[in-house]
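Reopening this one. Same input as before:
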Amino acid sequence: ALLDVTRQLLQGHVFLRVKGDARALLAEGKGLPLAIANSGDRTFALVYSSGAALQASVKADGDAETSAMGQPVLTVLRHALASSYDGIIIDPASAPSRAVLPKELLQRAVEQADPQLTVNTLLAAERTPEIDAKVAEALTRVPLWVAVGVSDSGTPGIAEGRDAEGRRFLEVYSHPLEVAVMGRGDNAGPITPAQLARALRTDQGLTGLLVDPAGPWIRLGRDDFAPLLALAD
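Same output, byte for byte:
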């Protein structure tokens, strides 16, 4: 469950609760004193998935001398990792549903992430008519993974999805955590855009790609990813 929370954390922004006026502190070039929680000798920074979750914490502790601000999640995680925090707690007032993510897990998640979270951001956004082309273009330049497993017969292979008509879609992932949360015991294998293009060019039986099947996901057909196939030329 914590891996799935971490995976979903990489899909957008989070809210912070800062002692004092966050905008004034930033304007003065000062650091942001984040709200924290202590557990024994460990200190965790507090982050919030929504404005409602933040308000619940304010209501719970009665400290109104704070301000809220939304920030890209990688900015927040890099700040937490560069500081002395032992990790983060998401939505602390939502116990027992709050999540405690240790520093070691966050470190690995950030190290393996696309610095711009390009695919994650696109898939979490509103589905416009242009989204297929934007995702297909992103696949030509971002880190990618496939799920490598062993079939019942003992043969190693790369995971595929099939629709109701039996059409085959190669599963592609934007982060190793996306593979882990599928719960199949597969390993995340890195694949370059050029290697992916060659695989699609070689296996004409593949109808297309299924990107981040744990969701939010998108299915792309061959007509969608001409820029990707061009890498195999």
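So the earlier flakiness isn't reproducible anymore. For the record, The two ends are 42 Å apart (CA to CA).
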